[in-house]
Amino acid sequence: MAHRSTLNGVNVGALSLMTVVTVFLAESSLVDLLTIGIVIAVLFLLIRYKVNSVWLVLGGMAIGLLIYAFTMTFGPSSIRFALW
Prior knowledge:
mainly alpha, 2 domains
């Protein structure tokens, strides 16, 4: 029984650490409406349709590359007008 209690304590500690890291990453990465929209879309696709996470990462990469190309073509301030 002592081993089970120890393992339960380790599991709680690991889950707590993962939760704290997730909150810190969210605070530093969700900086504008585009990133918040991507997160909402990804969570919807992941929960509702159970899309493989590889496709979600590749889709996020494609969106990032498109936004980068758009800002390099039309200037950094143009992305604000396109998203509003």
